[in-house]
Model the fold of this input.
Amino acid sequence: QITILAVLTFFIWAGESLFEYLFQILWRNLAQRLQSDLRQDAYEHAQRLDMSFFEARSSGQLVATMNDDVNQLERFLDGGANAMIQV
Done:
């Protein structure tokens, strides 16, 4: 009986590890796709803005703001959202 229990425990552990691995891969792919889409949407929106918008602001400030927003989303998706889902 102990052998059967040990084998069963191993298969349960292997199955759990496989599902955790697949979950992490799928989650990272989703997070990267969201970030890519957000960057693309922000770029397309910036292309449609009038020149007066860019004259009133520095280009470095605009790029830094867009990058910072996407980076904050990345930090949330890497840690916070994953932890909330697993709880």
Remarks:
- The chain is about 90% helix and 0% strand.
- Helices lie at 2-48, 51-55, 59-86.
- The mean pLDDT is 87.
